[in-house]
Amino acid sequence: MRGLVVFALGLIAFPAMALTNVDLYHTEIVLDQSAEKPDAQARIEGMTEVIVRTSGDQSAAENPVVQKALSQNSQYLAQISHGQIAEQPTVKMLFSAPQIKTLLSQAQLPIWPAQRANILVWLVEEDQSERNIIWEHSDSAVLDQMKQEAQSRGLPLTVPVGDFDDVTGLTVSDLWGGFAQPVGQASQRYPADAVLVVRAQGDNLRWTLYDQTPETIGVTRQAPMNGSNEGVDAADSMINQISDYYAQQSAVIVASESSESVKVRFTSLDNATDFFVLERKLQQLSSVASLDILKIQGKEVTFLVHLLTSPQAFEQEVSRMREVLPLPAVVELTDSVATAEATELQPQPSTDVTQESLVSAEPVLTQEQQTVIEPVVATAEQTLPAIIESTQVTPPSESILMFEWQGGHYAVPVPEEEETQLEAPLEGIDVDNV
């Protein structure tokens, strides 16, 4: 009986799944007092860290859509306060999870889920005279650097506590020599999804990652990952490589859908040059995440614009463009309604029914039955128009912003013999290749 109790307690203390839920949207940045605007710079750095941590992509901040959003970081902030780290002033920030996820989808960047693999770290450092295992509370610059970079990337790390079981369960030679089975056995007392063994010699790190649960290490034939890094940033490089590995395994790209979008139509586009200049200028607006071309007809083009801001802010920004003239917005039926109405207007196939067949199909009623039915029919004829009128539904419609393009001076100077070809009407553009 006692054995069963101990076994049950063991299951509670060490669950089979050790995935850790990472806090993706909190960050704390030390203020750079030498900067011209320390608070503004800290907000950009904080949002950059959150985007990299959430996407799992180190280069995410270089994305053009993200670059625009960083300049408008205040609209992504949910909470901000000040604090201190080692007597240095800091800015603590919490960013809005839904808005960050929407931004990543707009930028077509992946989202690395918050449920991430927990990695147990065995670190051995060699100095001039001996080698030592580094425990959770050991004084180690390498371990501190690993923890800091792992926090920035959202990679969960667990370091052995260094109690009696740890000290007696594994030796330095086991770790330094790369003996898998002793490492797996000593790691089973920790809830981990993977085990990382690091051997440090100054600025030189050699590491082995067992991407498997401890009880299978040294038992199965699964090969570990091996790597090495050198230099003062060796620990950072190692953590980034491992983070990239796990992000590539589980990160997904969500379909691009903006929380805000608007349809906008431009008229008076005389040639292909006008179209491409307009498209480029719209993409450069700080309020625009991306553009979809919905329709090109004659000298008009209609865009679906995915926004980083409100439709009102976008409209104001477009209105300030010197090449456009605002026009009154138009209201049009949605595509589904227009298609349905077009279908209804099509002539219906005729049915070959003769007057004789109608007469022969009529039931023969007695005088008594006709007396009862006639008042009912009269009542229905009087009531039906009122019922139809009360149940009529206004078909759904949408507003389209309208602008006139006045950028004709952008036409590219060409020789006379080529002028006719470049001045072709807009409908000649192949939309699929735009």
- State the end-to-end distance: 74 Å
Integer tally of domains = 3
User: Over the alpha carbons, how many angstroms does the gyration radius reach?
Assistant: 34 Å
- What's the total number of strands? 18
Backbone structural class = alpha+beta
The helical percent reads 25-40%
Query: Please, what is the oligomeric state?
Result: single chain
Q: Per DSSP, what share of the residues sits in E-state strands of 2 or more residues?
A: 25-35%
Weakly predicted, low-confidence segments: 1-16, 350-362, 415-424
Pfam families: DUF2066 (PF09839)
Signal peptide: 1-18
Keywords: Signal
Organism: Vibrio renipiscarius
What does this structure look like?
- This protein is α+β, with helices and mostly antiparallel strands and 434 residues long.
- The chain has 3 domains: 17-111; 117-252, Rossmann fold (3-Layer(aba) Sandwich); 260-336 and 396-433.
- The chain is 39% helix and 25% strand.
- The strands form 5 sheets. Strands 7, 8, 9, 10, 11 and 12 form a 6-stranded mixed beta sheet that branches.
- α5 (141-153) runs parallel beside α9.
- The relative contact order is 0.10.
- InterPro entries: DUF2066.
Short description:
The protein is an alpha+beta fold and 434 residues long. Helix content is 39%, strand content 25%. It has 3 domains: 95 residues; 136 residues, Rossmann fold (3-Layer(aba) Sandwich); 115 residues.
